[in-house]
Amino acid sequence: MKLLRLLAAIVCLTVLCSAEENLNGAGATFPYPIYSKWFNEYHKAHPDVQINYQSIGSGGGIKQLQSKTVDFGASDGPMSDQQLQATPFKVLHIPTVLGAVVPTYNIPGISSELKFTGDVLADIFLGNIKKWNDGRIAKANSGVKLPDTDIIVVHRSDGSGTSYIFTDFLSKVSDTWKTKVGKNTAVNWPVGLGAKGNEGVAGQVKQTEGAIGYVELIYALQNNMSYGSVQNAAGQFIRASLDSVTAAAASVKEMPDDFRVSITNAPGKAAYPISSFTWLLVPTNWSDKTKEKTFVDFLNWMISGGQGMTTALNYAPLPKPVVEKIKARIKDIK
Amino acid sequence: MRAQIKLPVKQDSAPAGAESPSSNGTGAAADKPLSLVPAAFKIKFQTKNNAFADGTFRTLVILCALSVMVIVGLIAFELVRQSHLSMAKFGFKFLSTSIWDPVAENFGALPAIYGTLVSSLLALVLAVPLSLGTALFITEICPRRLRGILSLLVELLAAIPSVIYGLWGIFFLAPLLRTEGQPFLARYFGWTGLFEGPKYGIGMLAAGIILAIMILPIITSISREVMLAVPRQQREAALALGATRWEVLRIAVLRNARAGIFGAIILGLGRAIGETMAVTMVIGNRPEIARSLFAPGYTLASMIANEFSEATSDMHLSALVEVGLVLFAITLIVNAIAQFMIWSITRGMPARNIA
Prior knowledge:
The complex is a heterodimer.
Chain A: H1 2-19, E1 21-27, H2 32-45, E2 49-54, H3 58-66, E3 72-75, H4 81-86, E4 91-106, E5 115-116, H5 118-126, H6 135-140, E6 152-156, H7 161-173, H8 175-180, E7 193-195, H9 197-207, E8 211-216, H10 217-222, E9 229-231, E10 237-238, H11 242-250, E11 275-283, H12 289-303, H13 320-330
Parallel strand pairs in A: 1-2, 1-3, 5-9, 6-7, 6-8
Antiparallel strand pairs in A: 3-11, 4-8, 4-11, 9-10
Chain B: H1 2-13, H2 20-24, H3 32-47, H4 51-82, H5 84-90, H6 93-96, E1 100-101, E2 106-107, H7 110-141, H8 144-159, H9 162-189, H10 204-229, H11 232-240, H12 245-274, H13 277-282, H14 300-307, H15 314-346
Antiparallel strand pairs in B: 1-2
């Protein structure tokens, strides 16, 4: 009898659960903490809506969206024209938060913050600058006594949005990088060791004297790592921070209507040059209209109330003009 | 119908039991309740044991065995199907070129094939003497009380998840290699050309060592079992002939157990080839062929694990699946070679020593 009652309770519960609305998304791992926070908060405000998100990687997110196994996708890099053509329906890119990549290094005897110009970074990662006391590094860092140590490059071995942003920046500031290596989530690195994940790169850099690597800004902030500043397009050396990253997005002069824009090497004076949007990939036309209405409501909440939750998790919020522009674009979902 | 036909037969075979006379007594009413129940049970039980049940069981077992083949077949089929894009573009060049460039979509898996084989062989070179020594000690020399503890410790090694080995590799092994191991090797064995170049700590050598530790328990425990299975008389016979302890181990134990030991080594090799996580964390992930074991390398499994989740272009994905196919083929080839070697070793040997 007891068992029967328990069974009945379980059945009731399942029925109740299935009564609520379930939306499924998949994609980028970088924004996962803020997305799960948003979906959670939104669920608290709307108990009948449950948005599930699987952080399987941008590539997987795009693939699953194209095959319609999820309602929406998410990516750290915009979909290419080729990918959009291969998708049987129209996809809208909605920027959600901003990320940035910072150079981190371990040089014996150096505790101050180093300054890097774009072309010096490119030449270090190309293997052209081999020693820390190279004249070109010293030029930007007058007053710092750089040692005669070999530079050991550490890069991400796993395909990653972080690598995409970093190589995108290097492609913009160095023609050699653009022609020889290019930009992608994984590239053919000319030199260096590959380490898995932000934690792998950070660990390897921390252990190896003379090492330089790059990690996600959030990772560096959360772990109190020191990192270098990078010269932006306006010639200023900017240290990455949530403000300077938002400034990069704000300084983009012509924001395209589909938001598929790279904001690395942005023109603003206060802009940190290795920054990027991360996007939600949303179909403009949903077959399930109630789901569509719910998700539009979520998006509107995300760009208003949701943006206030970003800084607590070390994500840079979207600048005002971009938010206004997104508001207008969301109306295209119908 | 079936039960009726079979009934007499079963009753004929039943009298073997102690109660058989009572089951034959058809008229004895007093006996009936007592005797009929077991008889009925016997009949019921035994009808299931007939040709029909045999046939069902046979089919079931055949299906089980077939499912293995079907699964292997499906895996191979899917790997070939998904990699046709890269096969069509690169052909056999995929196996012989060294460039892995996802941007230009130019893929060659040779460094990863090389890295897979070298890291696994290195692991075997390090692990086999260590494992066999441990197994010999446990079975032949070790005091009985220590034996259980030692076996337990070895098996504990097998239970550690590979990501933990990877972390240990990054935080303990790599720094140790960088500051102690690599300078030592470079100083005394640098002339071989295998130990030169910058000392990163991580690299092919670190991967080989981690793999060696990971395959140590499997080789040790299987060889131990095989050595224990060597009949005591063999040892006594050798002793009786005046053999020293070492000669007993060599002639009686190792010689009789060699097929099983070989099998253990092959199982270890299989694990080394397919190991992904720990290797990815310490090998340096660089698709390059270098003579020095200090240099970073790459393995097929690491390549897939690293790049699959963020690969967006079809060609990149297809190339990664083809990497999987190559890994699949290497595993098959290694196993085939191993089977052949075991077969050639065991010719003319008594079957009981094959583990």
